[in-house]
Fold each of these.
Amino acid sequence: MPTQLVRNPVHPEQLTLLQQVFDQTCAENHIDKASPDAEALALILVNSLQKGSDDKEKLANLAQTLVGSL
């Protein structure tokens, strides 16, 4: 069953939050930001935020969990 896509706009402060989590996760895990793994990470983070997860700690924990499966 495909996941339902949620297309809520990302506001500037949310974009800053996503960028911080993405940058930190990539740096800590030596992920090239231009790699397919980084792209997958970014897409999942954006989707999670659009579904209502806008807590930095929760997003960071999600990112670390995802890195373990990449």
Amino acid sequence: MNDNDNVCHAKSSPREALTWSTIAFFGGFAGVSAFGPIVPILKQTLSLSPLLMGLLAASPALTGSLLRIPFGAMVDRTGGKKPILVLLTMAILGVAGITLMFGLFPEPQPAHYPFFLLFGILSGCGIATFSVGIPSVSYWYPQRAQGSALAIYAGLGNLAPGLFALLLPSLVVWLGFTISYVVWLGILVLLVVLVYVYMQDAPYFQYREMGLDIDPDALLLACGEELLPSGKAMDSIRRAGSDWRTWVLTYFYFITFGGFIALTVWFPTYWSELYAVGLVQAGLLTALYSLSASLLRVLGGYAADRIGGEKVTLLSFAIVAAGALFMILSGRSIGGAVVGVLLLALGMGFANAAVFKLVPKYSPAAVGGAAGIVGGLGAFGGFVLPPVMGMFIKFNGPAGYAQGFSVFLVLSLLAIGFIVVLTRQATVKETTKPSLINK
């Protein structure tokens, strides 16, 4: 490739790459939804202690969080297609294991617990596709359009838990437990086949595979690829980890996306225990939060492209703090709690988009490593926050359900301080142009 070559020889297009990355993340995230409905069943049939049940329920979130770091960094070395296929295949093994166990043992025994724990770990692998898709999409789009593209990717992918929380129970009632899971397993297998056939890595990786010389300016002119990977996966992680701004963004994402996962798990119990609503109504109220936060993430990306990721992040945490305050003061007013839930969904949805608008801005030469750290450790909040909120209930009884949201109030106020520091630093130092990979 040379400076006079204005023709892009790469297959696919940014829109197609965004479409397949989003579908892959949606399918991977929905894979863990297949594990959720079996936990209450196993609690009864296996007579699980609270500790063992908690470990079982948290196993998909734990795996899906930690695997984001190495698999996100792998993108800088291999492109995104291979890591996505590996993660989706592991998720398929998890869903297949669940289906097989219930097919062979309609009434599981305590000795089967390790197998279900393993399949929970495997089912959660699909969540880690998120940190693979972030750099994959970022390498296809110029920085000015990354906020919108990444918001579409993450927002639509995040719809999976809410949609499947509504659809899967109805499917089980209609078709039966085993057949429902066989159907979902078939959909996942079909998804992997389609990704294998149609998904393409960013132009840089395609040019490298073809053995063509890569000139950054010519690649930008011909294919529109503005960011180039830094090289080896560990180099990407080290480079991103050495920048303090990566850890600030991780803290933001710990509150917003970790909080998103935590509250999606927490709200069914919250509504049932504090307001004594039925399971169906509790599910609908939970879906109101989950679906709203996911859809608002798309709008947050457009806002971040237009007014800047720092401004949107600052405003978002102010809204999260207001929502948490509503939840704390709502008492037993379900109307006040619903307002608080919608504010939390708005603030977290916008912040999730804005944070990943800032990732390629602050780590242009290590997007994969930064996405892995921010996405992986940030999502770990989904594993950490529910037990912390549960401590309020342990010490204060039912009133602790409302008081537990003070965790989000305190974390958000601290985040506002951090974003002020980050904004001041951003006005002083502009990001440098990414370096070409060292072969």
Amino acid sequence: MRNRTLIIMICVFVMISIATTIIMITEEDNHINETNETLRTYTFNELSFKYPETWKFGNYSTNDGVDDGSYIDKLTNPKIGEIIINRQYTPSGYNIPKNFVPEELDGSESELKLKSNKKEKINDIEVYENSYTLKNDSSKVVKELWVNKNNAIYSIILYGNNSNVVDIIKNNMKINSKTLTKNPVFGTVVIPKLSCNWNIRSDTVNEYKSVYHYDNSYYPGEKGSMGLLGHDITYSAPFNRLHTLVKGDRVYINDFLTQKRYGYEVTSNDDIRYDYGTNPIKFEKGAKELIMGTCWPPGYTTAERYCYSKLVSVEPLT
């Protein structure tokens, strides 16, 4: 009996070893090595790094036309995927996620599955590196580099096939000290049913093509209620049709700070508060929800109306 048990244990060990070897070989085969490629230099103001010449630049554009110190660039390689380069000014009151991993990524709503994270000091800057797989497509990877400097968040993110291009960029990256222009826009809110795509600001509700992020609410990626306030008739009237949303309608938050897209589904739209001055809306810790508010009825400030949505998806922002 003892010999039989020993034989079974040996067989199990051999099978596990073989399976592990196959996985390692498969991952190695899927890994594209670009070490011997000729390198080019990317430079934009204070940020610079080297990258393989097989990658080509897409069109440069700022976040939704906001020309105030933010930028986004893109590198593409048809065999591998794309690399998004972003710099975003850090809003007042924003808490950078631990290791740059948003809290909401550990929920069932997240399409991203964390494989590894680490922190290194390279060229006198602290670089955080995160690696993810996609739940619905394990052959694809998301590799991220994050740096917090100049009161800004820098991110360089690979979406696509496995490659050491991120290591090449990381080991050749430099960010000089610089005083940046403050940027109050940190994302956009998209409501397909209403054909809306508005900037989200951290400073004021009185701005065109924008809504305001309640300063006492949570930011995208945090476990807590996020609140947005928008006018109904002035300043582009971003929420003038908010009352037409019904249960099941979708709302999306494109967050530049975490470079993630948060999807929400409307759950109710009938919270009308005539006593909003003494009974203000509250944003609960731990709630996976988005609350959007505006004046009610349209054109008056008699009351405030709130639309509630629950978090249903977290995806890469590509």
